[in-house]
């Protein structure tokens, strides 16, 4: 953390991991978050394995869980208190802070992504843009899969290689 009079200070140090860290995601306190004092989280990933910790005000951390995407992940980030992992192969993993549930969903291979508010948008190689409202963590009733909704489909099915979303 950065404190004006003291500069940068270490807040958390993970235990020694047996693998090299390839991706890190940090979530600062989200006002009105579902985790109370555990709103600060850090995740580290290598290949398809992800470890998530909740950071305590005293600088200690408690492991929330170890999650597996099943394929090498390309991106690791937070949308609100929800941890998101994506893979170009067409998988997304979402850890929901309210339900404390890890959900993996197969989708079309992903070329790009962006987050806007609580929405995760995925640009895919079939010309479609899909979205998920990760705050509501919607699951389909029939199969308990994550509800991934198609927002747009390019008529020529050209891949969506970049997304940039801004909501007012």
From TrEMBL:
Gene3D superfamilies: YVTN repeat-like/Quinoprotein amine dehydrogenase (2.130.10.10). InterPro entries: SHKBP1/KCTD3 (IPR047876), WD40/YVTN_repeat-like_dom_sf (IPR015943), WD40_repeat_dom_sf (IPR036322). It comes from the Eukaryota. Signal peptide: none annotated. One of its GO terms (biological process) is positive regulation of epidermal growth factor receptor signaling pathway. PANTHER family: SETA BINDING PROTEIN 1, SH3KBP1-BINDING PROTEIN 1. This is SHKB1 protein.
């Amino acid at each position: 953390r950065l404190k004006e009079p003291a500069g940068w200070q270490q807040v958390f140090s993970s235990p020694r991991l047996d693998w090299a860290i390839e991706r890190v995601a940090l979530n600062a306190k989200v006002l009105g978050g579902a985790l109370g004092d555990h709103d600060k989280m850090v995740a580290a990933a290598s290949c398809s394995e992800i470890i998530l910790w909740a950071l305590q005000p005293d600088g200690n951390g408690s492991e929330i869980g170890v999650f597996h995407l099943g394929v090498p992940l390309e991106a690791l980030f937070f949308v609100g208190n929800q941890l998101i992992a994506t893979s170009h192969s067409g998988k997304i993993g979402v850890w929901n802070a309210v339900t404390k549930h890890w959900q993996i969903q197969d989708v079309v291979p992903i070329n790009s992504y962006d987050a806007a508010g609580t929405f995760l948008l995925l640009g895919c190689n079939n010309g479609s843009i899909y979205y998920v409202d990760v705050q509501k963590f919607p699951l389909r009733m029939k199969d308990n899969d994550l509800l991934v909704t198609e927002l747009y489909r390019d008529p020529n099915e050209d891949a969506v290689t970049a997304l940039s979303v801004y909501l007012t």
